[in-house]
Fold:
Amino acid sequence: MTPNQTSAEAEVVLFEGRPAVIPGLGALLLTIVTLGLAALYFVVRAYGVSYKVTTRRVILESGILSKRLEQVDSYRIKDYVVERPFGQRLLGTGNLVLHTMDQTTPEIVLGGLRTDVVALYEKLRASAEVERQKRGVRLHDNE
Structure:
């Protein structure tokens, strides 16, 4: 934090982590049927993705050997979708889909989150609104 930056302006981490190894009931059943072999695939897939959601931006890093880093500022998020299918609700996971104004990344899917997805959505939505107000950004529907 710089000397002329107040604590209210500091970037706060709302969520940081990886998706759940077994994100839903379907993955759990597949793991059981294959006697655990499918779990190897799910572990590699989960450890190849990293999420960081802050009050100012959403960062998605993916890849095992080659890495790809996608970042979208929170004020550029125009719509949020919380997905909690039955199988994921049983295992305590959920998805957060973000539709953005970013041309290179129009949609970010944070899948298999092991957290309260609705609470994360509320925090991210509120912080995005604060960022939009700070920057004077307005969203318009083109219908």
User: Anything to note?
Assistant: The mean pLDDT is 93. Residues 117-135 form the longest helix (19 residues).
